[in-house]
TrEMBL record:
One of its GO terms (biological process) is proteolysis. One of its GO terms (molecular function) is metallopeptidase activity. NCBIfam families: PRK00024.1, radc. Gene3D superfamilies: Cytidine Deaminase, domain 2. Keywords: Hydrolase, Metal-binding, Metalloprotease, Protease, Zinc. Pfam families: RadC, UPF0758_N. Residues 103-225 form the MPN domain. This is DNA repair protein RadC. Belongs to the UPF0758 family. PROSITE patterns: MPN, UPF0758. InterPro entries: MPN, RadC_JAB, UPF0758, UPF0758_CS, UPF0758_N.
């Protein structure tokens, strides 16, 4: 059904303005952004397809323009560009929050921020959040790509970047494209190797976050740091 065929009080734009955005479902909010569906498939069906394909709103926000290209109805550039712009706005909003206050006053924000950056990477990447003396975000850098082992992640490079940012502490992060959130023994060993290297320059490792398409896990919360 087209949006214009719905009763006025059921149209998502009118509903949002009358009752506020919290009154709308994820499908309705996404339908507002998409505006139109495709031939034979309305905008609500397209919105449902996107949410189902990428594992809900959080998963969708972790996609890039190339991921969206395979979805029927998003082959053109306009809608893909708009969704990519929403993703970037979400990243910047979360980064602004993390730069304004201590990151561990809102650990869920840290996890969401890392999910947006790393959650849907098709290959493993290793990133570092560099923090100031108040545990506020200075920068996030993806430093290594590919299969991550103690031999492919170089602690010296992490030390160099920490000194460049004059960081007081860091949060390590990497993704598991397989979807598992359980840190491996290799993850634990790598964490302790990096922690020892950074300790030589008085930089603390506050956490190591494992990110997957469906969520994120804190090694500190699991007692593995």
């Amino acid at each position: 059904m087209a949006l214009l065929d719905l009763p006025v009080d059921a149209r998502p734009r009118e509903k949002l303005l009358a009752r506020g955005p919290a009154a709308l479902s994820d499908t309705e909010l996404l339908a507002i952004l998409l505006r139109t569906g495709t031939a034979g498939r309305g905008v609500f069906a397209l919105a449902d397809d996107l949410l189902g394909r990428f594992g809900g709103l959080a998963g969708l926000l972790g996609t890039g323009p190339q991921d969206l290209r395979v979805v029927k109805g998003l082959g053109g550039t306009a809608k893909r560009a708009e969704l990519a712009a929403v993703l970037e706005l979400a990243r910047r909003a979360l980064a602004q929050q993390l730069r304004a206050r201590e990151v561990f006053t809102s650990p869920d924000t840290v996890k969401h921020y890392l999910q947006l950056h790393l959650g849907r990477q098709p290959h493993e990447v290793f990133a570092v959040m560099f923090l100031d003396s108040q545990n506020r975000l200075l920068d996030l850098e993806v430093l290594f790509r590919g299969t991550l082992t103690q031999t492919s992640v170089y602690p010296r490079e992490i030390v160099v970047r920490a000194l460049h940012h004059e960081a007081a502490s860091v949060v390590l992060a990497h993704n598991h494209p397989s979807g598992t959130l359980q840190p491996s023994r290799a993850d634990e060993a790598l964490t302790h190797t990096v922690k020892a290297a950074l300790a030589l320059v008085d930089v603390r490792v506050l956490d190591h976050i494992v990110v997957a398409p469906g969520g994120a896990a804190s090694m500190a919360e699991l007692g593995l740091l």
